[in-house]
């Protein structure tokens, strides 16, 4: 299965929805797409929606951590929404939840950023 990336920009927030598998085959492509969107759209905050992500490996963790550092450096916040149990467990074991919050859905994530939709 491939990875599909859907991005939406609204009021300084980039919402990235990933569908499929984020692994060593797809990590570079999604990293480049997200970096370009962050720079081009002048995004301060990032919501990463993982509700339709079926699989992620350590390459995916690297993509997430790298985008967190980029957003954090810009003075923004990054949050995760809707990870399935397997992806949620990987994120938890990696320690990413110690630096970025996870929410059940995009609406809660936007509220957590204090951005009203």
Supply the key terms:
alpha/beta, 40% helix, 5-stranded mixed beta sheet, globular, 117 residues
Task: Describe what you observe in this structure.
By secondary structure, the chain is an alpha/beta fold. It has helices at residues 27-40, 58-73, 85-94, 106-112, and strands spanning 3-10, 13-22, 45-56, 78-81, 102-103. Helix 1 packs parallel to helix 2 (58-73). 33% of the residues are buried.
Distance between the termini: 32 Å
The tally of strands reads: 5
What is the radius of gyration computed over CA atoms, rounded to a whole number of angstroms?
A: 13 Å
Q: Judging from the principal axes of the Cα atoms, what is the shape?
A: globular
User: If helices are DSSP runs of H or I spanning 4 or more residues, what is the number of helices?
Assistant: 4
Regions with little confidence, pLDDT below 50 for 5+ residues: none
Characterize the largest beta sheet: strand count, sense, and whether it forms a barrel: 5 strands, mixed
Q: How much of the residues is beta strand, in percent?
A: 25-35%
Helix percentage: 40-55%
> H/E element string?
EEHEHEHEH
Strand order of the largest sheet: 1-2-3-4-5
Quick check: average pLDDT? 92
The assigned structural class equals alpha/beta
SSE layout:
Layout: E1 3-10, E2 13-22, H1 27-40, E3 45-56, H2 58-73, E4 78-81, H3 85-94, E5 102-103, H4 106-112
InterPro entries: Anti-sigma_ant, Anti-sigma_F_ant, STAS_dom, STAS_dom_sf
Protein name: Anti-sigma F factor antagonist
Keywords: Phosphoprotein, Sporulation
